[in-house]
Amino acid sequence: RAIGMGEQGRERVFVEDLSSNGTFVNGTKIGRGNRRELHHGDELQLAIWTAGSDIPYFYDKFYHPSARPMLTHTIVTSGAFATVKLALERRTGQLVAVKIMDKRTLYKRGQPNEQTDQETRILMALDHPCIVKIREVFNEEQFYMVLEFLQGGELFDRIKRKRCFSEAEARIIFLQLFHAIKYLHNRDITHRDLKPENILMVDNTSLRLKISDFGLAKMVSEETFLHTLCGTPSYVAPEVFNPNSQRAYTKAVDMWSCGVILYVCLSGQVPFGSIRGPPSLQEQIQQGLYSFDDPVWRDVSDTAKDLIEWLLATNPNERATVEQALSHPWM
């Protein structure tokens, strides 16, 4: 390794190949005696693995035999339910996302139960092109869920960059979203925490997406779940705020969240928020107090607004189902 100073006094890091077997940067061989500047995110390898070989991607002769099948490193995100880390699968060399959950949050009194194990088996059996696939689950000192890794980040970040989508773009997004929700609802799975942060983009350019964190809200205690929603309630259906004795979750809560997300996608703004008060955010949601008065809505079609209004019906019995949403003229 050689370190020098750049024109503006910044450190520059180089790697020089002195090996007989070769050194690789991002899969390209440097060549003996050659030097290559390293940049943030470069992948340095001392060998290139081929799928046809009998040797796994990580040859663990130098590791303890009980070494885990994943090498975790960068934290992708951290929330109330879990921390998500980017990881490398030893056997295949593929990047995966590992969701790490505290058992005290996941299980009552920190102990597993049959219901949670059944929920896990149901989620692992899900197979839909617009739902993040659960590859493996490890129940150790913490609960580890290994998921496919998507390069495009969250829909939330895409909205921040674009500010809002055209109707044509939003229609592509919601065609995928509604079909994924239909798949879940047909299996009696309600997401309960749909928001742009839980919708992941497959890559950085297309509008292909997958829902994540589906069903996980059912695996945590009701108290923990409600506490989390109180932190970011903008996408929560009115009935979630009802007292315990009156609270009844149905699939309609997901459709309300879709209405809020569609509003955000087309305007770049949330329909409910403390900035719009008084009244309070909770009262705005429970009374359905939102509008299309902002100038951004002048160019949005009436059919799009009609779908939003149907999805944001405060009475869950009058709210559009996923089948009705898919059949709406705007779709």
From TrEMBL:
A molecular function annotated in GO for this UniProt entry is:
protein kinase activity
In terms of SUPFAM superfamilies, this protein maps to:
Protein kinase-like (PK-like) (SSF56112), SMAD/FHA domain (SSF49879)
Q: Does the keyword Kinase apply?
A: yes
Q: Give the top-rank taxon of the lineage listed in the UniProt record for this protein.
A: Eukaryota
Q: Which InterPro entries match?
A: FHA_dom (IPR000253), Kinase-like_dom_sf (IPR011009), Prot_kinase_dom (IPR000719), Ser/Thr_kinase_AS (IPR008271), SMAD_FHA_dom_sf (IPR008984)
Domain named Protein kinase is located at 70-331
Q: Which PROSITE patterns match?
A: FHA_DOMAIN (PS50006), PROTEIN_KINASE_DOM (PS50011), PROTEIN_KINASE_ST (PS00108)
Which keywords does this Swiss-Prot/TrEMBL entry list?
Answer: ATP-binding, Kinase, Nucleotide-binding, Transferase
Per UniProt, residues of the FHA domain are 1-30
UniProt lists the family membership as follows: Belongs to the protein kinase superfamily. CAMK Ser/Thr protein kinase family. CHEK2 subfamily.
Q: Which PANTHER family match?
A: SERINE/THREONINE-PROTEIN KINASE (PTHR24347)
What name goes with this protein?
A: Kinase-like domain-containing protein
| Organism, scientific name | Syncephalis pseudoplumigaleata
